[in-house]
Amino acid sequence: MNYRHIRLPENGDRVTVINGRPSATDQPIVGFVEGDGVGPDVTRASLRIWDAAVCAAYGDKRRVHWAELYMGEKAARLYDGDFFPRETLDAIKQLTVAVKGPLTTPVGGGFRSLNVSLRQTLDLYARVQPVRYYAGVPSPMRHPENVDAVVFRENTEDIYAGLEYESNSADNLMLAEFLRNKLGANFFEGAGLGIKPISETASRRLVRRAIQYALDHDRESVTLVHKGNIMKFTEGAFRRWGYSVAEEEFSESTITEQQLWTEFAGQRPAGKVVIKDRIADIMFQLMLLRPAEFDVIATTNQNGDYLSDALAAQVGGVGIAPGANMSDHVAVFEATHGTAPKYAGMDKVNPGSLMFSGCMMFEHLGWTEVSALIAKAFSSVIAKGQVTYDLARQMEGATELSTSAFADAMIAELGT
Ligand code: NAP
């Protein structure tokens, strides 16, 4: 494929997807978008750490060949004002794996969020966010080490689908009249209206992915989080379709929580994943009080949005929370935080969120040794109190490091 500005490395191989699973050689090409605001700082630091960790794990045998792709302000400079160039999308589809820094949503001018556009255009339907604790990281919890969950959030529908009708607009009045006159709905005059689509297709593919992840990673349970007691035909349907996927497609490898107690006296049989569900509001309480009971979580878009940020706060905040957006073919690993414009170019913020998103990327490629080494080095650096400002302000006696100095400390710890 001929690109205008993108230069794919001459050496290296595309990561392919075989039966829904990524297949990488020892020399994969991975795309990266450095992002806006603090994006260049955290991307530069993370690339150095990732390369050092690959070298520490495999010496010369393996290497990532990075391909820079452009979105956001850098793209606009290169592509005559285009923040979301078509060829970047084509390259991500071709490469199947990319990491991405945060992007600004330009204010005004009718721009949609670039992140939302990317997710919708590539149908990145699963937002995957692992939440685990690293010893020494400041946390508001008494036992943050009990938090070890992976949230699978449906990424394409729910009230985020963009089906909203402004109070008293022509479309709003038409819809209001239909709802009142044809369906007998009752609500205040002039109410803004929004639609919450939850489909069987989107619910099933999300829960299928969460269960497959639990099986692949030897996790104990998948909890379906929903508000089905109130919204029966959307949230309740998500729950029902979730259980159906488990029963119809994973009957050999899953049991329900009810079966766990009626057939197995509360003892999970080896190799079986327990499928359970919880109502969203109680889930927030349970994740604070008894987080050890939860493992993989599958939920609708809005619940997942709130829950994943709340969980991130329990183990150190957005500065270190990683995430990925995935379709059946493409995986984009990205920082959870935004562009933090007041810190742009100051070499100040924590690169942990992007760095750990990269760890997810290495696990996706099957290079688990790399992510294990990064996690180990991070724990050592934290234990020495070598942290960026966000953690330093919560830790007594810590040494505040810049983004690049934190990367240096990590690389020294990796011993390369
Ligand atoms: P933000 O950029 O995430 O920043 C909010 C605050 O979070 C910062 O002021 C800082 O807190 C803390 N923070 C963020 N990144 C950090 C890091 N790496 N290390 C340590 N602390 C960090 O959120 P925002 O100010 O609401 O959004 C700014 C822009 O980012 C907007 O244009 C928004 O659209 C965009 N955004 C993009 C993405 C994405 O690309 N995925 C996601 C969210 C927002 P303190 O001030 O307390 O130091």
Give me some keywords for this one.
single chain; 416 residues; alpha/beta; two-stranded antiparallel sheet; 14 helices; globular; binds NADP nicotinamide-adenine-dinucleotide phosphate
Short description:
The chain is of the alpha/beta class and 416 residues long. It has helices at residues 39-58, 73-78, 86-95, 114-121, 170-183, 200-216, 235-249, 257-262, 280-289, 301-314, 352-365, 368-383, 389-392, 403-414; strands spanning 16-18, 21-23, 29-33, 65-68, 97-100, 126-132, 148-154, 164-165, 193-194, 221-226, 254-256, 273-279, 296-299, 322-326, 331-335, 386-387, 399-400. α1 crosses α11, α1 (39-58) packs across α12 (368-383) and α9 packs parallel to α10 (301-314).
Q: Can you put this structure into words, describing what you see?
A:
- The protein has 416 residues and is an alpha/beta fold.
- The protein is 40% helix and 17% strand.
- Strands 4-3-5-15-14-6-7-13-10-12-11 form an eleven-stranded mixed β-sheet, with helices on both faces. Strands 1-2 form a two-stranded antiparallel sheet. Strands 8-9 form a two-stranded antiparallel sheet.
- Helix 11 (352-365) runs antiparallel to helix 12 (368-383).
- The protein is globular, with a radius of gyration of 22 Å.
- It starts with 15 loop residues before the first strand and ends with a helix.
- The structure holds NADP nicotinamide-adenine-dinucleotide phosphate.
